[in-house]
């Protein structure tokens, strides 16, 4: 049993990251992947925007980059088909969405079923979509946070892997809340990717499975 665990730890897990913006979560993943005992290896970073700063972060880390402009395609399905071809050239075991501002087609999601992760700045299922921090404040929530989940055809609706919860403080603005949530994003996304790379995390028929145990509806909870 110990030998099998060691073999699993030694095997690398190639990862492709998709992004559209600054790539702060990408930087957290890069930093984590440089730990000597982390089996996750970022093979490539792909963006639909040539001016995405995340591409520079990848370049600085010696990671291959690609750009695929969605505006060059007639529709979402055509873009996603080309994106699949581009991703699969790197033969990743895991695809990670890190601020990729595209709604993915059903064909794309099915192609990567069980090996496609996303992070969202709310405690899902609350506040799917945009402006999550403003919506949490308007609802007078006492807690807010972020969620990592497997991607399914339902927008921001896949099985939850891990959530980080923070208290909403008196006087919080959307900006101050976002800053504290970002700190937690940079903590839990590398954690979830590492779990997958180590063979500890998988998508089962009834939800996310960690260390052989079905996670609850909220995933693995971390309170701060």
From TrEMBL:
<feature type="binding site">
    <location>
        <position position="76"/>
    </location>
    <ligand>
        <name>(6R)-10-formyltetrahydrofolate</name>
    </ligand>
</feature>
<dbReference type="InterPro" id="IPR002376">
    <property type="entry name" value="Formyl_transf_N"/>
</dbReference>
<feature type="binding site">
    <location>
        <begin position="23"/>
        <end position="25"/>
    </location>
    <ligand>
        <name>N(1)-(5-phospho-beta-D-ribosyl)glycinamide</name>
    </ligand>
</feature>
<feature type="domain" description="Formyl transferase N-terminal">
    <location>
        <begin position="15"/>
        <end position="193"/>
    </location>
</feature>
<dbReference type="InterPro" id="IPR004607">
    <property type="entry name" value="GART"/>
</dbReference>
<dbReference type="InterPro" id="IPR001555">
    <property type="entry name" value="GART_AS"/>
</dbReference>
<comment type="similarity">
    <text>Belongs to the GART family.</text>
</comment>
<keyword id="KW-0808">Transferase</keyword>
<feature type="binding site">
    <location>
        <position position="118"/>
    </location>
    <ligand>
        <name>(6R)-10-formyltetrahydrofolate</name>
    </ligand>
</feature>
<dbReference type="InterPro" id="IPR036477">
    <property type="entry name" value="Formyl_transf_N_sf"/>
</dbReference>
<dbReference type="GO" id="GO:0006189">
    <property type="term" value="P:'de novo' IMP biosynthetic process"/>
</dbReference>
<dbReference type="Pfam" id="PF00551">
    <property type="entry name" value="Formyl_trans_N"/>
</dbReference>
<comment type="function">
    <text>Catalyzes the transfer of a formyl group from 10-formyltetrahydrofolate to 5-phospho-ribosyl-glycinamide (GAR), producing 5-phospho-ribosyl-N-formylglycinamide (FGAR) and tetrahydrofolate.</text>
</comment>
<comment type="pathway">
    <text>Purine metabolism; IMP biosynthesis via de novo pathway; N(2)-formyl-N(1)-(5-phospho-D-ribosyl)glycinamide from N(1)-(5-phospho-D-ribosyl)glycinamide (10-formyl THF route): step 1/1.</text>
</comment>
<dbReference type="GO" id="GO:0005829">
    <property type="term" value="C:cytosol"/>
</dbReference>
<feature type="site" description="Raises pKa of active site His">
    <location>
        <position position="156"/>
    </location>
</feature>
<keyword id="KW-0658">Purine biosynthesis</keyword>
<feature type="binding site">
    <location>
        <begin position="101"/>
        <end position="104"/>
    </location>
    <ligand>
        <name>(6R)-10-formyltetrahydrofolate</name>
    </ligand>
</feature>
<feature type="active site" description="Proton donor">
    <location>
        <position position="120"/>
    </location>
</feature>
<dbReference type="GO" id="GO:0004644">
    <property type="term" value="F:phosphoribosylglycinamide formyltransferase activity"/>
</dbReference>
<protein>
    <recommendedName>
        <fullName>Phosphoribosylglycinamide formyltransferase</fullName>
        <ecNumber>2.1.2.2</ecNumber>
    </recommendedName>
</protein>
């Amino acid at each position: 049993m110990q030998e099998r665990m060691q073999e699993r730890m030694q095997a690398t897990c190639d990862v492709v990251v998709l992004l559209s913006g600054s790539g702060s979560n990408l930087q957290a993943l890069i930093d984590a992947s440089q730990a000597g005992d982390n089996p996750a290896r970022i093979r490539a970073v792909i963006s639909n925007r040539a001016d995405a700063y995340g591409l520079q972060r990848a370049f600085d880390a010696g990671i291959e980059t690609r750009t695929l402009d969605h505006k060059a395609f007639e529709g979402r399905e055509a873009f996603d088909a080309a994106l699949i071809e581009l991703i699969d050239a790197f033969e990743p075991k895991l695809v990670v969405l890190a601020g990729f501002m595209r709604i993915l087609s059903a064909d794309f999601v099915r192609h990567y079923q069980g090996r496609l992760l996303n992070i969202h700045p709310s405690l899902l299922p609350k506040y799917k979509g945009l402006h999550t921090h403003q919506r949490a404040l308007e609802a007078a929530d006492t807690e807010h946070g972020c969620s990592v989940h497997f991607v399914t055809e339902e927008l921001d609706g896949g099985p939850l892997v891990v959530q980080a919860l923070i208290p909403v403080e008196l006087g919080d603005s959307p900006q101050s809340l976002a800053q504290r949530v970002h700190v937690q994003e940079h903590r839990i996304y590398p954690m979830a990717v590492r779990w997958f790379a180590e063979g500890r995390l998988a998508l089962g028929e009834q939800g996310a499975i960690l260390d052989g145990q079905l996670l609850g509806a909220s995933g693995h909870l971390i309170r701060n």
